Amino acid sequence: MDFKPFQPPKRTLMGPGPSDVSERVLHAMARPTIGHLDPAFIGMMDEVKQLLQYAFQTKNELTLPISAPGSAGMESCFVNLVERGDKVIVCQNGVFGGRMKENVERIGGTAVMVEDDWGKPVDPNKLEQALKDHPDAKVVAFVHAETSTGAQSDAETLVKLAHKHDCLTIVDAVTSLGGTALKVDEWDIDAIYSGTQKCLSAPPGLSPVSFNERAAEAIRNRKTKVQSWFLDMNLVMGYWGAGAKRAYHHTAPINSLYALHESLLILKEEGLENSWARHQQNHLALKAGLEAMGLGFVVDEAHRLPQLNAVYIPDGVDDAAVRNKLLQDYNLEIGAGLGVLAGKVWRLGLMGHACSAENVSYCLNSLDEVLTGMGAPIQSGVAVDTANKVIAA
Ligand SMILES: *Cc1c(COP(=O)(O)O)cnc(C)c1O
Predict the structure, then answer these.
(1) Ligand 1 pocket list (CB less than 6 A)
(2) Cβ atoms of residues 152 and 176 within 8 Å
(3) Same domain, yes or no, for 293 and 348?
(4) How many C-beta neighbours within 10 Å does residue 5 have?
(5) Same domain, 89 and 208
(6) Model pTM score
(7) Ligand 1 atom nearest to CA at 197
(8) Three-state DSSP class for residue 121
């Protein structure tokens, strides 16, 4: 066998993640590896924490990146805040709420499900009813930005309800962080996790988390040890904590943290509100183009995530054939449907560095050409101009 260094093709990533990583972030990642207890590295860790506090809009001391992808951030919130026998209300309106249920059950807790149709936001009335029916519930968990459908739930309202009934809250913000308004302190979220590969546009593999004092106290007051050694926040804090001796816990993914640091710097330079506005602006342009083409959205505009646009596949069109052609001929990746929406929708991501006016045009033009070439029942040749008018306005 003749092995050669791997050269990935140059793609435009407009699916549900990972999103495009900028040259600037890639270069940061290529800087020399140093020791994970090197004072220079520890200085950078402190900056990562502060930059994450900015991104999350929180003063929480317990704010840091878990050394593993978003799924591990999810697991860290559940294993630290839930103990065997605890009752957790899990709101599900897509794929990721189902994973929350799995987490609760594997810990030995009971998940009370509050279900909404896929494509709808979590219904606060249903949550309130569940809280009344289960006064012994300890935690409420929900997904702020459901990447499987593109629906956004009203985190502030859901957290308020949970607190009214003395429950802690776990919020999935993997897709929302950096792309849409998220205010951890103002909304009083207790535990939150995100990921690096969506709107932060850093490589996959790290999961920023933040716990407020209420959550930290619950962790300190546990009756049992956290079942996961690796994700036990008490131990992780020995390495990441303020004034901690920086005791060895695990070897931090040094170069991935350089990349996260750089991507957070980029976010800070742009300004969080400006980033949210850019996502919304490009979403409006993409939406105008898709609708001009005749494609319909899964989610009502009022609850739609700008960074994740799920549209129905036109009748008679071969889902996989379109995505393959986009990848092969246009180097463009878009996402397939998940779960009950598999084969029925495409998910067009406008995340972080990939969220640009050029990408909106490129995506619409590519999709227009591919669908027209296949004789799909769409309005051809109007999408790009329609989107450009929105961008120019
Ligand atoms: C992507 C995603 C995750 C999982 O993140 P990974 O980095 O893939 O582990 C969890 N929740 C939501 C809402 C996501 O979009």
Answers:
(1) 17, 69-71, 74, 96, 143, 147, 172, 174-175, 195, 197, 204
(2) yes
(3) yes
(4) 4
(5) yes
(6) 0.97
(7) 7
(8) coil
